[in-house]
Amino acid sequence: MKFKHKFALGLLMLAAIVAIVATVLIYLKKKNQANEICPASSSQSPSAPEGTKTSVADSWKVFQNTKYGFQITFSDVWQGYQAKENSSLPDQALYRLDFTLKGDVVPLSVVVYERSVWDTLPENTRRFTEVARNDDYVFVYSTWESTPAAFSTLTEKEIANVLKTFKLTK
Fold first, then answer.
1. How far apart are CA 45 and CA 39, in angstroms?
2. How far apart are CA 121 and CA 109, in angstroms?
């Protein structure tokens, strides 16, 4: 009898471990999907970072963040981009969003600061360029210093053109 109880207990423990591992893997997969942008309807995209949506009109081309109130329109060169929230925040920033290509290449990052914080940062310590501001926030960006050879179609001019489409939506 004791052997049967030990065997049953061992099976129960094995099932519990498998269930825990499966739960963790499912959580991690969902977390990764939550940090990507995919073509979506005009409502909140299930795979977009919280507070973001994409537009029906241009499918994947229009990225909109409803939490901080901005949108960016991308050209065909950016097809397949992903918008990933980055928890590595610089200098008292509130939010950072990296626009990536092919997984981990980050040609553009948008960072949001409270206006009062940005305005008190010494200019010589600011590592980003301001693109817009409203009553509450200052929106800044950074780009790569030089275009990697594998991304020759994504030139500085192309990034500048995308930045020209940056609009405040609230």
1. 8
2. 19
- Report the C-alpha dihedral over residues 44, 49, 52, 58, rounded to 10 degrees: -80
Domain count, the chain: 1
Cβ atoms within 10 Å of 92's Cβ, excluding its own: 11
101-143: per-residue pLDDT in tens? 876 788 899 999 999 999 998 888 888 899 999 999 999 999 8
Give the residue among 65, 43, 68 at the shortest CA–CA distance from 56: 43
- By the 8 A CB rule, do 53 and 40 touch? yes
Classify 105 as helix, strand or coil: strand
Q: Is the residue at 107 inside a domain?
A: yes
By residue range, what is the domain housing residue 164?
35-168
pTM (global) more than 0.70? no
What whole-number distance in Å separates Cα of residue 128 and Cα of residue 89?
12
Alpha carbon dihedral 168, 137, 123, 141, in 10-degree steps, equals -50
Q: Whole-angstrom distance between the N-terminal and C-terminal Cα of the chain? A: 70
Distance, in Å, from the CA atom of 147 to the CA atom of 151, rounded to the nearest integer, reads: 6
Would you report the helix, strand and coil content of the chain in percent, each value rounded to 5? 35, 30, 35
